[in-house]
Q: What sequence folds into this?
């Protein structure tokens, strides 16, 4: 028994020593590998130092080494540039989406601002042309807000003594067809003096009914071409189109106002709005000439109009 026990102890001790030596051998191998790596790094550094010293002495070799080293660095540089380009593309997409969103909001805002400007100009023109004192001022009913009117009762129809069968005449039996002419549009303006007709036509602008204002102002211009208010009516006639973004019709209306009523109170406004509309239609050069020439043609125009012209000139980047 003792012999067997001693043999087991000897065997286990041999195995233990074997494993210990094995682990030490592995550790030494790792250390040797690390030392060999350090030696390789040092040799590389020595070679680079030798090259540097040699290249300083020989300028031709210096150029060649630069070209070789640049080729080695090209791949890293290209990789960095590609990564940067991907980042820039992502940022550009985000900016494009934001720009489209802002542009959509600006279109909505410009429409609202146009309506507000039109309403403000109307109110200022009312204050400028107001000669009646507040105590004597009559209350004017805006269109659509007057008292209810009697349009007549529904006509009575007789249901007695009707024929049992209705007679029908075909086109062949009638042989002739009478085509009726379409009824002409009834007059929108009241049967009053021209000044009151003008106020009535412009009142549709105040309540935002620009389509009715278009017809009312057109009727006023046709009936009162030589009146002092015809030039102002022509300007507001153009505004009915501009607010609805019908720029081609607006430009025609402003041009008629500028040509037919050059001495009107609204003549500078006509020229300014004509220039703005021309730019919006894509005729930037022609529109900028009109905007920049406003001060020269109408030096005594209202300051607000001249300031507006300067603002639009900067906005559209017109050459002075």
A:
């Amino acid at each position: 028994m003792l012999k067997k026990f001693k043999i087991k102890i000897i065997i286990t001790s041999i195995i233990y020593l074997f494993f210990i030596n094995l682990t030490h051998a592995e550790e030494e191998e790792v250390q040797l590998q690390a030392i060999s790596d350090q030696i390789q790094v040092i040799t590389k550094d020595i070679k680079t130092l030798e090259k540097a010293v040699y290249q300083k002495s020989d300028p031709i070799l210096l150029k060649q080494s630069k070209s070789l080293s640049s080729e080695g660095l090209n791949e890293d540089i290209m990789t960095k540039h590609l990564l940067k380009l991907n980042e820039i593309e992502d940022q550009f997409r985000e900016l494009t989406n934001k720009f489209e969103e802002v542009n959509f909001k600006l279109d909505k805002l410009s429409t609202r601002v146009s309506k507000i400007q039109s309403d403000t100009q109307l109110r200022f023109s009312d204050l400028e042309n107001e000669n009646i004192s507040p105590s004597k001022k009559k209350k004017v009913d805006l269109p659509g807000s007057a008292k209810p009117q009697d349009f007549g009762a529904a006509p009575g129809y007789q249901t007695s003594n009707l024929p049992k069968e209705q007679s029908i005449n075909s086109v062949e039996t009638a042989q002739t067809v009478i085509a009726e002419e379409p009824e002409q549009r009834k007059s929108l303006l009241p049967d009053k003096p021209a000044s009151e007709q003008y106020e009535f036509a412009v009142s549709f602008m105040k309540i935002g009914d620009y389509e009715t204002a278009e017809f009312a102002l057109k009727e006023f211009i046709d009936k009162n071409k030589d009146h002092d208010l015809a030039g102002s009516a022509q300007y507001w006639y153009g505004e009915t189109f501009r607010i609805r973004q019908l720029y081609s019709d607006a430009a025609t209306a402003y041009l008629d106002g500028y040509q037919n009523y050059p001495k009107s109170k609204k003549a500078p406004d006509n020229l300014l709005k004509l220039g703005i509309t021309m730019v919006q239609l894509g005729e930037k050069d022609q529109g900028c000439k009109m905007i920049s020439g406003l001060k020269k043609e109408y030096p005594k125009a209202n300051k607000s109009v001249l300031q507006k012209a300067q603002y639009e000139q900067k906005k559209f980047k017109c050459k002075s």
Remarks:
- Residues 2-65 form one domain.
- The first helix runs from residue 2 to 57.
- The chain has a mean pLDDT of 75.
